[in-house]
Write a structure and sequence with these properties.
The complex is a heterodimer of chains A (about 160) and B (about 210). Chain A has about 160 residues and is mainly alpha-helical. Chain A has 8 helices and no strands. The chains are: A mainly alpha (about 160), B mainly alpha (about 210). At the A-B interface, α1, α2, α3, α5 and α6 of A face α1, α2, α3, α6 and α7 of B.
């Protein structure tokens, strides 16, 4: 039984691992931290898995647990000097696809996301994942109105970095 | 096209560059140790409950009971102890209940609130211990001094009469000593809270602002 549960869990996570990796990209800025956070997300998902009874989609459930881990549960390990920047390593922007200005703007925005606080990062992440306000408010535990106001603020903040 | 739409589009393309872990790599991760904040809060809280609980018991050894009998406070002490045990068990029960409520499958705000409540339970317990110890030791000091004054046979009672200044110095010394003791505990708490809960408190406030 436990073996079966384990197999089921790993298969699910393997299939949906992108969700966790994307959260790691938003919340960390080097590969070691990325791996650390991914590890903790996996442990938290696995610990919570017995309570997952399939009434929701695995991916929906995973968004919640993984974000909770990044915002609340995860304790960052102290790291040495950061040698690499957020935008250059973590996000690989394919230069051939964009003209110079757009590429520059994207770099600026990814860098700006790295500077946001934990809650703003969560909002941006959910926005980029095209979650609607109902889902956002349910994931974060705030009202839809609050979610909207906060989201607009973050959007304005990001835009103002490009058009100061 | 809006800048944010471009970002959204690029975000999708980023998926191609995401790491891809194999079944076996994920399998190995399941058995690693968690370094979650809840685990630390649990360990530290248990240590605190034990520390203050044990301290409470150790301070009431046989010697203590004999002294209480001498100054006619045995009944009072029994009542104080029964009460303090009852309160301790109540706090442990509350702590356990709150701890059990912490679930990573709750929404972010509820999760944060439950963690903060669990931690607060321990904080209130320590507050209770400190305040009740202060009150009971005041009562004991009062009775000890007056009992001693009434029964002690001294050759020259005048030596034991404090002047107003001496009383003042004694009182000042007691207040100073207690202040240092409380200061150390306060610092210790700032440290624990700073390390464990700063980020959590900040995020909770950030998340819940705009809401009543």
């Amino acid at each position: 039984m436990d073996k079966e549960l384990e197999h089921q869990f790993i298969t699910n996570l393997e299939k949906h691992q992108n969700i966790a990796h994307k959260i790691c990209r938003i919340y960390t800025n080097d590969q070691d931290s990325h791996n650390d956070l991914f590890q903790e997300i996996t442990i938290q998902l696995w610990k919570a898995y017995p309570k997952f009874r399939g009434e929701a989609k695995f991916s929906t459930w995973m968004y919640r647990v993984a974000l909770n881990t990044a915002i609340t549960l995860y304790r960052k390990k102290k790291r040495g000097i950061k040698t690499q920047d957020f935008d250059t390593v973590h996000f690989k922007i394919k230069s051939e696809e964009y003209d110079g200005e757009v590429e520059e703007n994207l770099k600026l925005m990814y860098a700006a996301i790295g500077e946001l606080n934990d809650i703003e990062k969560a909002l941006v992440f959910l926005y980029l994942e095209e979650k609607n306000y109902r889902e956002i408010s349910e994931t974060l535990g705030i009202t839809e109105v609050n979610a909207r106001v906060k989201m607009n603020r973050v959007k304005t903040k990001l835009k103002s970095i490009i058009n100061p | 096209m809006d800048e944010l739409d471009i970002l959204k589009k690029d975000w999708k393309q980023q998926e191609a560059s995401l790491p891809k872990l194999s079944y076996n790599e994920i399998y190995k991760m399941l058995w690693k140790k968690s370094s979650s904040i809840v685990k630390w809060i649990f360990i530290i809280s248990i240590l605190e409950l034990l520390f203050w609980g044990v301290l409470n018991i150790l301070l009431s050894d046989g010697e203590f009971w004999k002294r209480m009998e001498v100054i006619n406070l045995k009944e009072f002490t029994v009542i104080v102890y029964v009460l303090s045990y009852a309160v301790t068990f109540y706090f442990i029960y509350r702590f356990y209940r709150n701890y059990k409520k912490i679930s990573s499958t709750d929404d972010a705000a509820t999760l944060m609130k439950n963690i903060l409540t669990t931690r607060k339970t321990v904080k209130y317990y320590v507050g209770f211990i400190i305040i009740s110890s202060a009150l009971t030791s005041l009562v004991y000091s009062y009775f000890t001094i007056f009992h001693h004054a009434a029964t002690a046979e001294v050759e020259n009672p005048a030596n034991y009469n404090f002047t107003a200044t001496q009383w003042l110095i004694l009182t000042a010394a007691i207040i100073f000593g207690s202040a240092i003791f409380l200061g150390i505990i306060w610092l210790f708490y700032r440290l624990i809270y700073g390390i464990l809960l700063n980020r959590l408190n900040k995020n909770y406030k950030e998340l819940k602002n705009l809401e009543e």
